[in-house]
Amino acid sequence: MLRGEFEDAGEQSPETLRRAYETRLAETVESVGVDRAVDETPLDRDRITALLDGASPEIELTEAAAILALDEDRPHADTIAADARDILLMGMTTAVLDVETLSSGVDGQLEPKEIQQKVEGRFPMTVAEYALLHQFIAQREG
Questions:
Q1: Under a CB-based contact definition with an 8 Å cutoff, are residues 25 and 17 in contact?
Q2: pLDDT tens for each residue of 54-103
Q3: Geometric angle at alpha carbon 104, from 101 and 106, rounded to 5°
Q4: 44 SS3 class
Q5: What is the SS3 assignment for 126?
Q6: Structure pTM?
Q7: What CA–CA distance (Å, rounded) separates 97 from 6?
Q8: Which one of 19, 89, 102, 137 is at 20 to 30 Å from 113 when CA atoms are compared?
Q9: Is 68:74 a contact under the CB 8 Å cutoff?
Q10: Buried b (16+ CB within 10 A) or exposed e, 123-139
């Protein structure tokens, strides 16, 4: 999800990659505190707490970006989310993948039109969906 921080994305399973993203999110929450994360992101206390407890609550990419943006060394949440989507778009270009091939590659878990809308930021994407797409794209790039 973060440029340069998950360079081995194609070598992991989507589940392992999602867990790595969640670990990074949990580390950020731990560093800034639960109260601040609840106050300054769209996530409620239950989902923040679940994340810290090692569960996998459903978190959208924009919500994950809001968590990461709490770290003052990172850019604004909108920039983080746009950069994450750019990773997918650039990867699709490098690997010469269209949305139909990508949908087929993820065993139809997402429809082509749905992938296009999510990657373009016109429809919400969960962290789990991001991991699924990122892993497949990175694997094909490699």
A1: no
A2: 999 999 999 999 999 999 999 999 999 999 999 999 999 999 999 999 99
A3: 110
A4: coil
A5: strand
A6: 0.93
A7: 20
A8: 19
A9: yes
A10: eebbbbbbbbbbbbbbb
